[in-house]
Predict the structure.
Amino acid sequence: MSTGSGTLSEVAATARVSEMTVSRVLRGKTNVSQKTRARVLEAVQSLGYVPNRMAAALASAKSMQLAVIIPSLRNIVFPELLAGITDTLEGAGYQAVIGVSEYSLKREAKLVAAMISWRPAGIIITNAYHHPDVVNLLTASPAPIVEVMELTRNPIDMCVGLNHRKAGAATATRLLKKGYRRFAYLGCDLEADKAAGKRFKGFLETITQGGGELVAKSTVDEPSSVALGRRHFADLLAQSPRIEAVYLSNDAVASGALMYCLAEGIPVPEKIAIASFSGLEIGQAMPLPLTTVRSPRYKMGCLSAQRVLDRLNGKKPPRVTDAGFELIEGATT
Amino acid sequence: MSTGSGTLSEVAATARVSEMTVSRVLRGKTNVSQKTRARVLEAVQSLGYVPNRMAAALASAKSMQLAVIIPSLRNIVFPELLAGITDTLEGAGYQAVIGVSEYSLKREAKLVAAMISWRPAGIIITNAYHHPDVVNLLTASPAPIVEVMELTRNPIDMCVGLNHRKAGAATATRLLKKGYRRFAYLGCDLEADKAAGKRFKGFLETITQGGGELVAKSTVDEPSSVALGRRHFADLLAQSPRIEAVYLSNDAVASGALMYCLAEGIPVPEKIAIASFSGLEIGQAMPLPLTTVRSPRYKMGCLSAQRVLDRLNGKKPPRVTDAGFELIEGATT
DNA sequence: ATGAAAGCGCTAACAA
DNA sequence: TTGTTAGCGCTTTCAT
């Protein structure tokens, strides 16, 4: 391992002080004289010494790493979540170690075990539904844990998210108010994306109660993408020619659907209205901005990291944090 | 830190063997009897023991973490690169620790120091131009290092990438062959995105030599995005009404430009042709697929991780790896 | 096949 | 203000 960057004792020898003094200087303790501090710093410089945090973490039982587990890197919402996390951690000197489960509960379980073996200071994990082993490991872990994205009343430790059922309901209310009554749904990742399921549930409840009707439904068990939305939108329309509005599981698929309409010259929203969920940049940059619900990914990242940091600093943050959402009135409805 | 997951010695006590025997079992050494092994495994199970890799890394001077430094998470090419890295590392039992520099050389320097303090087994860092401190730290580090994305003849250690100048030249050649002569360029991130600069250089050289002409150029020193492309494309067109084809720094901006044309009813490619670089999914899902050059992000991720692993396994991988690129004939030229 | 001793590089706790 | 002692949890090396 030797870094080319020596050890504390080499620095100590060079500065002719004890290791403890070097340790104190490096950790910014104040009880070191100016002279000594200068001498130590000089030695550090001249040796190009970089402290070994593994050793520090082992000795102090305090790691500066946070484990973050997400389902995918290819869906831009997760990198955005990560950005919030890393931005928040950076100021506090912590680092994120990320693991990608690829939407597999088994891989998630392996990852959690691997992460815990590094004794992270905290754990941030997406979604609220996990493998039993994961629940056991996390429950046993002394590290603060945040489940992020969905809101649960019974988090393992803490949770930060939004109410997806309400987000679906809000969209439905909006569409009903606009006069739409005959709806279709196009979803993907059904197995893995429980949150999308909750949105659809809220949507369906609301349109049903409001006198609307679900006249077509198409679900695809593949990761969502623009291309997938574009491909499957046509099939959906074919199912029932009298669809007035389509609710899609997220902006990626919805953007694909809209591109299909643009390419085929189908007038939106006159012939067919489109609404979805995410609030991605791309959806708002389309010739017609999407009607959608913005989920606060970056903010949820910041909040979840902050909850962990708060706990590490001895505070008592709330178990459940509702990050909210925002309905965006686009031109597709 | 105590994990709720005990220590080796607790397991050893439970199984009534020495710590060494437990260590051997856990690391899959073969010189342990079946009986003993079974007893140890049982103890591990019953205690819910998860080994402490920090201690292992310290004792063996072998970390299982790789540092990965990227400029941003919001540009999908970097998550795709990461996906290749994590997929490749996973099988070998290594983990990626990511750092995000936000396109700042200073932040990159801080990050590299922070990373090295964890004594990673290897380092993967994007781009080929770094802060002098970074070069010093990396040069001094005993860990295998890969600079990824761009091709350099003089990597600090190894590099994996593509020749951006040639990618620009290939695009130019194609456009010249199609008969375009009056070109414009729209770029962003000029300071930070050296690779885009190289592509433009190759593009400009080639059109000039081929009888073409650069009649307009617009550069924006902001991170690229679809929205930005859409906003700035109009300005560019206004600069010179006789532009025949526009080369954009990447597919995000180009998609924005194309959306502008779709929204304004400007016929592409008849009135104006569009070409760029990346090969993003979104560009190919547009009503008109973009003419672009696909950079092999995922593959470069795999390759760079593999180079590091090879070195860790005592092999002598090549210093320079050309991952190549692929010209995509879209409908926008 | 198994164990004992020593130590990785650092920090906590206690002394001086 | 500075130093000493002990040990974090594991692996290496050398015995047996």
